[in-house]
Sequence to fold (496 residues):
Amino acid sequence: MNRLQLFKLLRRNNQLGVRRSPAFEQSIIAKVLMYLGAGFVTCYLIFFGVMFSMMANEEDAPGVIFVILPLLLLMDFGARFGVQQTPAMLMKPYMLLPLPRHAVIETFLVSSVFSGWNLLWLSLFIPYAIIILAGGCSFLVVLAVVLAGMLLVMFNSQWYLFVRTLVARSLLWWIIPAVVYACYFVTMMKDDEWHIFSKVADYISEPESAWIMLLVSIVLLTGAFFINRKMQFRFVFEEISREEKKEGAMKHVSQFTALERFGQTGEYLKLEVKSIMRNKAIRSRVFMSLGLVVMLIAIITFSSTYDNFFMLNFWCYYCFSIYGMTTLVKVMGAEGNYIDLLMTHRENILSLLKAKYYFHVAILVVPFLLVIPAVVAGKFSILMVIAYTLLTSGVLYLVMFQLGVYNKQTLPLNQKITGKGNVENGLQLVVELLAMFVPIVLVSVLLLLFNETVAYMILSAIGLITTLTHPWWLRNIYRRMMARRYENLEGFHASR
Fold:
């Protein structure tokens, strides 16, 4: 079997694997949202392509798109976390088959290079090319600009795979992309002729230079491809083999005896804390959420980037809600690994839901303390902070816990590189979008009707009422979960 035949076979198996997934029949809404999102992105890219091409014609500099391309690629890098898996995630079923393992990795890397997401960027470069060609630019320069731009997008896909694979092993690897993108923004602050990328735009305006830029793009893509080839193979093999190092007897076991006074709910509170301490996949969600909150608060406190009223409200709410939106979207997913044991005693699940709710309410103390510098700096008011704290503990958690009724895909506790996808059904996407934007819409409407103080007091009242009534709506969720228990159990078993 040659490489082309292997590529076709693995691509076909991957498509069949998606169709055979337990979540496939539940993904209709997700697919509709995905196509709508792709159409939305396409329209934006066409708009950018037309706008930059007009600038290029006015300045007689066909390479002007490379001035702004790094910023677009930064946004592309962030968006890939929601749309692109690493090849290592797809490797596990093929590691024990009589296939050349490096060839399998190469096949998936090639698929990531020529993915539909990458080809979507043609909607930026094709309008740009047509307009600058009509403006009198040489065909060779236009061809070089388009090819170099697409190759840089493909390089960005390999850069994403490199970063995501490292970050899955340790969050300290975020230092690499932070330094890389910081260099771009630092150069933007210089006043001499924009920044270094403007020199690239001038350099690429000549036919000879354009082809040199194309050659540089080829070298970058090729280098990133082979680095990923080696790294993906090494890391996925290490994770699948899972050779544990024995470092002697366990010296200390945390008992959390203070929680024993809460009975069964206290025992499940212990489980929540120990799950974060012991399980790599769950722990990484906590640290990533905390890191993002710290970064946002630092930007808000020490810069004027988000000083308008809407953005301050959005990010204040987001600082409190991000952890809940990250963890509760897969509520009951971790418990799917041992859901059969939880079903053996009456109202076990209700105690578990209460413990989860109390834990997520208690953890709101962390962002409350972290936003104090922003309050001191005058960016947030104390009433705003209290309103969004109560709105998160009440309305947000009320909405997010509803997913416990419908989630039925097991979440791996430690596997991260070869772990399963994050999207189980379209309802998760809908709930995430509602949780992110509805409170901001609500506060905007209240501010149209009342002044700022009254609006935040109404939000606080709504959040306090839904927080205090949590025993009733948690029991309602528990009853609906029990009505679907056999269907959910089947899904948990099938996705382990």
